[in-house]
């Protein structure tokens, strides 16, 4: 089942986010002082954003956060976070959640989606490419790769 995440579920969201991100940092998840509970609570309560999740057996197993940033064209949406619990990789959960995002973007009249993915996260880059995302060239020393998705018309 795909649905909107509730603010009361922020602890579950942070836990899933942490498990997923830890998989692509070879030296462990960086401790940069980010208060992820506050970040996710902000994403969950923004009137201009959406956070969708996939739920199996009453548990959140994937999530996606997106919105149109203030400095972006009105027809462009940014996918800020997209995480699947590592125990659910390659089971179709991410593809189903991605399809739900695309449906929302179509309904909202978005024509382009963009995201930044960590350059070392080859697994995620492969997933996005299979969904139709295209990478823009990354410069030397950049930590993130910008990817673009042409939202199909309805």
TrEMBL record:
SUPFAM superfamilies: Acyl-CoA N-acyltransferases (Nat)
Record-annotated N-acetyltransferase domain positions: 1-152
Pfam families the UniProt entry points to: Acetyltransf_1
UniProt KW keywords: Acyltransferase, Transferase
Keyword check for Acyltransferase: yes
Stored PROSITE patterns: GNAT
GO molecular function annotations of the record: acyltransferase activity, transferring groups other than amino-acyl groups
Protein name as catalogued: GNAT family N-acetyltransferase
Source organism: Streptomyces cahuitamycinicus
């Amino acid at each position: 089942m795909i649905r909107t995440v509730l603010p009361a579920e922020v602890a579950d969201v942070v836990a899933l986010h942490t498990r997923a991100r830890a998989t692509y940092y070879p030296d462990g998840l960086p401790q940069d002082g980010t208060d992820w509970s506050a970040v996710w609570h902000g994403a969950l309560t923004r009137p201009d954003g959406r956070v969708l999740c996939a739920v199996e057996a009453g548990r959140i197993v994937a999530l996606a956060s997106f919105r149109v940033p203030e400095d972006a064209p009105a027809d462009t949406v940014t996918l800020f976070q997209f995480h699947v619990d590592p125990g659910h990789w390659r089971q179709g959960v991410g593809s189903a959640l991605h399809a739900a995002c695309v449906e929302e973007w179509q309904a909202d009249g978005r024509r382009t989606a963009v995201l930044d993915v960590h350059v070392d996260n080859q697994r995620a880059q492969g997933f996005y490419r299979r969904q139709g995302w295209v990478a823009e060239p990354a410069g030397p020393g950049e930590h993130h790769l910008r990817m673009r998705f042409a939202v199909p018309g309805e």
